[in-house]
Task: structure prediction
Amino acid sequence: MSVDLNNESGLEVDSPGLVRLATFALDQLRIHPQAELSILCVDEDTMAAYHEKYMGEPGPTDVLSFPMDELRPPGEEDEPPIGLLGDIVLCPAVTDRQAREHHRTAAAEAEYLLMHGILHLLGYDHADDDERSEMFGLKDRVLATWAEQRPDREPAR
Result:
């Protein structure tokens, strides 16, 4: 799996941790190991410009996803497709504010938003209740598995 992260935000980001999560999530979703993902962390002004240009909405947002080859998770009997997943743009300044609102650490909020962006790249959406239930349920399952299996997890006492 090729996951590249470029931090242009001016803020500290756990780049290795986010790359590990992305790799783990794509593996859990059975995306081909040669698939490529790019993650870009930007400042609020840059995110606001992207948000307005691509979504037609003012101000910075937390995460944007730009799919490339429209890859989808394969069915159980299907081979994983090879291709470019696309780009995820995160805004750590917005993430940090939201973390406090959602009673999470900044790192946990960044993981949550990264997973959200990955699922959007894979065609998941939350426009209606059924889509939302499917997308958020999958996000919660992958993040729960990640919490149990992550390499930097604190051992049980």
In short: The mean pLDDT is 92.
